[in-house]
Amino acid sequence: MLDWIRNRFRRGPVVPVVRLSGVIASGGLLGGRSLSMESVAPLLKRAFETRGAKAVALSLNSPGGSPVQSALIAQRIRLHATEKGLPVIAFVEDVAASGGYWLACAADEIIADPSSIVGSIGVISSGFGFQDLIARIGVERRVHTSGENKSMLDPFRPEQPDDVVRLKRLQAEIHDGFKDWIRQRRGKLLKGDESMLFTGEFWTARRGIEFGLVDGFGELRATLQARYGDKVRLPVIGPRRRLLSRFGLQTGGLVIGGGIDNIGTATLAALEERALWQRFGL
User: Fold this and answer.
1) Closest Cα partner for 9 from 231, 276, 206, 259?
2) Which of 50, 102, 116, 185 has the most CB atoms around it within 10 Å of its CB?
3) Angle between the 67-84 and 161-186 helix axes, to the nearest 10 degrees?
4) Rounded alpha-carbon distances, angstroms, from residue 142 to 82, 126, 137, 149, 154
5) What is the fold, at CATH topology level, of the domain defined by 1-120+201-242?
6) pTM (2 decimals)?
């Protein structure tokens, strides 16, 4: 409480910090730990409405995820920045790749550690095929649809070439949108050839700065103090804690009211999240 009072009345420039850490997915997925428009929008609003703000800093650490949620969050960042006339600076921690880099490009400047991972400007879809497994254990798959393509990419049936063609077409359309966003935000800063930059490959920021994917190296606090002075205030804008959580209590999830279904869902979500991070060696 005393720290809050001191920060409240302490003089000096203010740069609110919004921490964007985790996999990008629609609200409710990944056990509520994901970045989504629903979870991030209130934080952005509070940050950009902070009295006396000179800029807004994004502390980024994300391996990507949903292209839709990435686009929505990035567009909201630009909307606030334009309305308030505030510069936005993204600071990359371990990784800003795929959708994470999409978010980074919403900033006016991207600062990273030389060992940060950036890039992965591409679209991926992955899954499993279980048709041989269910045949081996004597399970019959029964699916009835209205519409010949309704069961496209059913993991319990053999993969169909036409389904893969349709999927590739969808991916290409999403990839085109991703590339357009990078061109719009990075423009002439890009130094590498697009045939290399947009393959989905990722690099350390040490290489990324050569390609124009990153603007400079640095750490959030040191960089902002160098720009705005040692007295700069850096309030972290986080989600408001509910009353019960302030006393160490929770409702729902695995603490109260959890069951086998919740445990299974949470386990699958954790595995999916871990797989996304491991793509980048993390």
Assistant:
1) 231
2) 102
3) 20
4) 53, 23, 15, 15, 11
5) 2-enoyl-CoA Hydratase; Chain A, domain 1 (3.90.226)
6) 0.77
Residue 35's contacts (CB-CB under 8 Å, 6 or more residues apart) are: 20, 21, 22, 23, 24, 25, 62, 65, 69, 73, 103
Q: How confident is the model at residue 276 (pLDDT cuts 50, 70, 90)?
A: low
Give the whole-angstrom CA distance, residue 176 versus residue 179.
5
Burial of 249 (0-12, 13-18, 19+ CB in 10 A): exposed
| pLDDT tens column, 197-218 | 888 888 999 999 999 999 999 9
d(CA 120, CA 186): 15
Residue ranges per domain, the chain? Answer: 1-120+201-242
Average pLDDT over residues 146-153: 64
